[in-house]
Design a protein that fits this description.
Structural class: mainly alpha
Strand order of the largest sheet: 1-3-2
Order of helices and strands: HHHHHHHEEHEH
Oligomer: single chain
Radius of gyration: 24 Å
Strand content: 5-15%
Number of domains: 2
Shape: elongated
Length: 316
């Protein structure tokens, strides 16, 4: 049964492997180039000192050099969804064409057939997720060392969340296929649902999974250590109590890198004040990873179980 299931899953598994191989061909040269530039510039010693002195200039030059390719790489977080729905295709195709009925007449019980097919798809999805994660972690290592891994686009390809993403896409396509028994529409729905869910979590839910931290500090002092490699949700000029204060410099209000513009603004305007930030510290990385993986993975388990039940009870 396992051998038959593998033969039926082989084409899609090889396509998934081909996608990962193509990514490796694209990423390895730029990854080697980035690692070489990182070590040549001596940036190993700049962790935690990115905004000061020579480190600031070196880090900005390095990030600027690889910023464009980094923005393109961020779109690769769609790959786990593509692989997940692709690996669901053999199961849905058999339901669409009715060939599962032939298998059930060959002394293979429904439960064994469903378990073998779904088990192999899950194993292939987890293996693909592991390969994708290892490739992305290796490629991003220099940038993570300098900027951390909390920002969206980096967080999505580190840690263990890719396993949850891939299984979620697989489960969504399987559940749609078990209901619809049409391969192409089911896979389209699965990928569209994956994209919508990822967008919702990244732009709204993730920042609310844990209580955020706040910090207020005088602008003539260094930012608190907890802000190093943190995910800054928002930051703005404030008074000592953290209330919003207007500054006579355009473009200051906002998250992330704009924090570094404030000292120059104050120097030219002779204004004293404070900065207030709402953020998730770098130490929250694994807690957020666990919650998000549990969310996507838990929904995936429910969807896969539904696909198995629906096929066992209603397929004939």
């Amino acid at each position: 049964m396992i051998w038959v299931a593998w033969r039926q899953q082989r084409t899609e598994s090889l396509i998934a492997a081909g996608i990962l191989a193509l990514l490796a061909v694209l990423l390895v040269p730029t990854g080697l180039d980035m690692a070489s530039a990182y070590h040549h510039a001596g940036l190993t010693a700049c962790a935690g000192h990115e905004a000061s002195g020579s480190c600031g200039d070196a880090v900005r030059a390095f990030v600027s050099r690889f910023e464009q390719i980094g923005n393109v790489i961020a779109w690769l977080t769609l790959v786990p969804g593509l692989i997940g729905v692709l690996l669901a295709a053999p199961f849905v195709l058999q339901l669409e064409h009715g060939t599962h009925r032939l298998d059930w007449t060959q002394s293979v019980t429904r439960g064994r057939w469903i378990g073998g097919k779904l088990g192999l798809a899950i194993a292939a999805a987890l293996l693909a997720a592991l390969a994708f994660t290892l490739l992305m972690v290796w490629w991003r290592a220099p940038l993570v060392h300098l900027q951390g891994r909390m920002e969206p686009g980096i967080f999505d390809s580190e840690g263990v969340v890719v396993f949850g993403y891939t299984l979620f896409a697989l489960g969504l396509a399987l559940a749609a296929g078990a209901l619809w028994r049409r391969a192409v529409p089911s896979l389209v729905v699965g990928f569209a649902g994956y994209f919508a869910a990822r967008l919702f979590v990244e732009t709204w839910l993730r920042q609310r999974l844990l209580s955020s931290h706040t910090a207020t500090w005088a602008l003539d002092r260094a930012a608190p250590a907890n802000l190093t490699h943190a995910w800054v949700l928002t930051g703005y000029p404030s008074d000592k109590s953290g209330h919003v204060a207007a500054l006579p410099c355009p473009g200051i209000h906002g998250p992330g890198p704009r924090l570094t513009l404030l000292p120059k603004c104050l120097a030219t305007q002779d204004v004293a004040g404070y900065m207030h930030a709402i953020y998730h510290p770098a130490s929250s990385f694994w807690a957020l990873q666990g919650l998000e993986t549990g969310l996507f993975g838990g929904v995936a388990v429910v969807l896969i179980a539904f696909a198995a039940w629906r096929t066992h009870s209603h397929a004939a």
